[in-house]
Every structure is written in structure tokens, then in C-alpha cells.
Amino acid sequence: MNGFSLKNKIFERAFALGFSACGITPVKEVDATHRLHFDKWLQKGKEAQMQYMRNYKDKRFDPRLLVENARSVLVVALNYYPSIHIPENHPQFALYSYGQDYHIVLKEKLNELFSYINTLISIEGRIFCDTAPIMERYWAQQAGIGFIGKNTQLIIPGKGSFFFLGEIISSLELPWDTPMQNRCGHCNSCIEHCPTQALIPGDFTTLDSNRCISYQTIENRSDIPFEIGSKMNNRVYGCDTCQKVCPWNRFSIPTTIPEFEPSSEFLSLDQEKLEHLTHEDYNRIFKKSAVKRVKYERLLRNINILRKNKSES
């Protein structure tokens, strides 16, 4: 079987598993421009309290250090855009958190794809789904899946940005895909609509995590600064504003992955229910959810901020 036929079979299998996009690129060191931008981001403290972003920089810049005999990065994208959304007058959760934890769902599908590839050709490799220091969006752009927009998200032309990314780094060698160029043009909608001005324009948009509502409501283990909390409005977990205002997301279509659809109980969570949320409720409703990244006490912190915002509006 020649390389093109093998590639077609692998991609066909990826699409059959529910992936919306697939691309492959040779593995090598991340280019100097992106390395410099990442270093400057850290130097300016824009990672806030995410100290893990400073770890394993050698592996982050060169995935060959993660996988012996690596030759390629196969990147896939999995649509998580839900068919039903929480009512706008209810506390808002980031769309990616509506269904089951993506780490579980994506890992299972990547394992299936990896096993299938090994029925066609014997390879060495590892799967990744936000589980190692990999610059996922960079490799997705290199693999021709999409481009990194001014909102710092991976945007797939004609499909939008509501996707999870996964990778198979392996000894597989196939005809490579062409890196995609940026297609934001003169649009600055994400930068202009960010409620806390967390997106700093430049040759590469810089995300200031200290000002990002997603960071503050999910990653921040301390008190949320008043100047950020007062602009959370009714966002209780994460923020999708920079994605929702992106023109490319007018192409978003509902996911075909049933695990990413929300439960009726999740959709019914209004302010009153959240204010009376018990630890038992939390464990039941968010049992398999990415929301559990925020411990019960921190979710209550966020809920209390929303209560104050509502009383002052």
C-alpha cells in the first residue's frame, strides 16, 4: 500500500470515529518565532498561577523528546458544540464543559484510531489529549487543520473553533499536509468584545491569563480580583465570548458525539439551584464532567460572585 492510500484509509477511519478534521505533519522543533512568543509570555507573567506552563519546556518545544523514534504528529479535531444551550438568563458554563470530560472521550477515540493504524502498519507511538506539554494548536496549524486566531483558539475554516484537539505522535511517515496561514484578516471582534481586555493585540495575540475569566473561574485557586469578578456577569465556569463573537463560528454545527450533549439536570441549573448546590449535588451532576476541575468550594466561590453581580445590577 502506498503512502497516499494508507493516509486515506487512516483519515477515513478518523472521520468514521467522529473526528471532524485530521492532518499530519513531520515532528520537529517548534519554530523560533513561536518559541520566542511563548518565552516572552512567561517572562511577562501572563500565565498567572499556572506554574506548570514553565515545566518541561524542552519537551514542549520538541515532542521528539516525548516519543522515541517519532517521525510525525497526527492531529485530529473533535466537535463539542452542543445542540442545546443553557438559557441565557441562567449562570453560564463554557460549552466544552456541557457533556462528559473530553479527556475520557477523546482518549478512547484516539486509542481506537491508534489500534486501527497498527492493523495497517506497525508503528511506535503515543496518544495525547491535553495530557502532556504539547503546543497542540501550533501542531494543528502545522498539520493544516486550521489556524491560530486572534482569540488564540484553533479555528477551522468553514467549521469554527468549538473543537477538542488530540494527537498521535509516532514513527508513522505519510505524505505531509500543508500548514495553514492565518485568516483573521482585519477582524478584531474577539479582542474588542473580551469583557476584561485579556487579549492583547500584536503580531501574535497575547492572552493575559490574569485578566481572563476562563482562567479566573477555573484555574485560579485563590480569590478572584474584584475588577475581574465584577465583569463575570453570569459566567460561573469559563467564558466563550471570544469564540462566540468570532465570525468563523457562524459555521458551527451541533456535535454528533452523544457524550458531549448536556443532561437535562445540567441545563436546568439556574441561580437559585446553584446557590443551594450541595456537595452531593455537585458530585452527581458533574460526575463525569470537566467542571470537576473546579473543586466544590471554588465553584461556590464563583456562584457567590454571580449572586453579588445580580444583586448589584
Tell me what the structure shows.
- This protein has 313 residues and is of the alpha+beta class.
- The protein folds into two domains: 3-170, no CATH class; 188-250 and 262-312, no CATH class.
- Helices cover 35% and strands 12% of the residues.
- The chain has 13 helices and ten strands.
- The strands form four sheets. It has a four-stranded antiparallel β-sheet, with helices on both faces.
- It is globular, with a radius of gyration of 20 Å.
- The relative contact order is 0.17.
- GO terms for molecular function: 4 iron, 4 sulfur cluster binding; epoxyqueuosine reductase activity; metal ion binding.
- Keywords: 4Fe-4S, Cytoplasm, Iron, Iron-sulfur, Metal-binding, Oxidoreductase, Queuosine biosynthesis, tRNA processing.
- This is tRNA epoxyqueuosine(34) reductase QueG.
- It comes from Coprobacter fastidiosus.
Summarize the structure.
The chain has helices spanning 3-16, 32-43, 57-61, 102-120, 136-142, 189-193, 213-219, 226-229, 241-244, 264-267, 271-275, 279-285, 296-312; strands at residues 21-26, 72-79, 92-93, 125-128, 147-148, 154-155, 163-170, 199-200, 206-207, 235-237.
